[in-house]
Design brief:
Blueprint: H1 8-18, H2 26-38, E1 48-52, H3 55-66, E2 69-71, E3 79-83, E4 90-94, E5 106-109, H4 113-122, E6 126-135, E7 141-148, E8 154-158
Helix pairs in contact: 1-2
């Protein structure tokens, strides 16, 4: 029924779509939501929440640059749920006074960071830290960059 390793946003998507747009009984919906949360292991990330001053600009940016599916849902006014191709999903929450540069940075996997930085610029964002080589003590090598989306959220890129 539910995939125990998936986040709350995926579970909410399942509940909404499989239960006929929230027409199931409140008791049944609550039981499914509780199971979705309790099946995740302690310390797991549940979902990611970003702020945005413009939901439509955010939808255009993340769908064009990363191919994310972004959806508005009944009862979630002022929010867009997002679903990347794999991994953790979450939501964008409307915050009319804008975003802040405080808080954690979410890093997104990019096949080609240089191309992704070009796509970010074309979509109205900007590069903060250009593509930089990284090497971790374990021997893991790759590249990273830091960018800003079209409403001011910082986004890390990683290979």
């Amino acid at each position: 029924m539910l995939n125990p390793g998936r986040g709350i946003a995926d579970s909410a998507h399942y509940i909404y779509t499989e239960l006929d747009g929230w027409n199931a009984s409140e008791k049944y919906k609550k039981r499914i939501e509780e199971r979705a949360v309790t099946r995740m292991k302690k310390g797991s990330l549940a979902y990611v929440e970003f702020f945005t001053s413009d939901l439509e600009k955010t939808r255009e940016f993340y769908s064009s640059v990363f191919g994310w599916r972004l959806e508005a849902r009944p009862g979630w006014e002022g929010h867009l749920l997002f679903y990347p191709p794999e991994g953790l999903g979450g939501l964008f929450k409307l915050k009319p006074d804008g975003v802040t540069d405080k808080g954690p940075i979410v890093h997104v996997v990019a096949d080609d960071i240089a191309v992704t930085l070009d796509q970010i610029k074309e979509a109205g964002g900007r590069t903060i830290i250009p593509m930089t080589a990284k090497e971790i003590e374990s021997g893991l090598k790759g590249f990273f960059a830091l960018a800003e989306d079209n409403v001011g959220n910082r986004i890390g890129l990683s290979t």
